[in-house]
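If your schedule permits, I should be very grateful for your opinion on a structural question. I have a record of one protein: its chain in single-letter code and its fold written as discrete structure tokens. Kindly check, if you would, that the fold set down in the tokens agrees with what the sequence suggests. I remain grateful for any guidance, and I place the record below:

***
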Amino acid sequence: TQSRSARTASRLKPGTPEFRSALRDALGGRGIGLLVLLIPGKDQVYGDLLAEPRPPGPAGGSQEVAKALADHGVPVLDLAPALRAAARDGLPARRYVYWRDDTHWNPRGVQLAAAELAGALADVKPEGVGADTAGVILSEGPYLGDEVNLIVDVGTNAEIVLGNRDQLLAASSP
């Protein structure tokens, strides 16, 4: 049976702050937290660094989105400031955060995003895997392919992640 907040979320338009708020409540009822990542486009990161600066594209309203979500009690991590800073600082040495001929992050961009997410989750006391393992999941991408992956993190506790694009399972020992 669905909870009341899950039924509410299913009736709302996906992508709206109200939907995410209802989703947060439905997940919270199951002990699962929600953090929305705002991921900028390449033009939003490099646009003002070009010889002829370009204004941000249509997704340039991430501050408005972040505010609307915050107004509904949904936590947000906007990756644009960190990616812009890394792009600006790395440009003279040609250390990019996106592939030069593509609109996707390169390994440096992925590592930066994973570090930002791990930092945002550092104070969260999850009952599942820790922020370091969440960062590894993001950087290694076991959820992207068909091949089954096993990731093992042995630190203060042991965490494992097993799966592929169809299903991802994670466990942690105290």
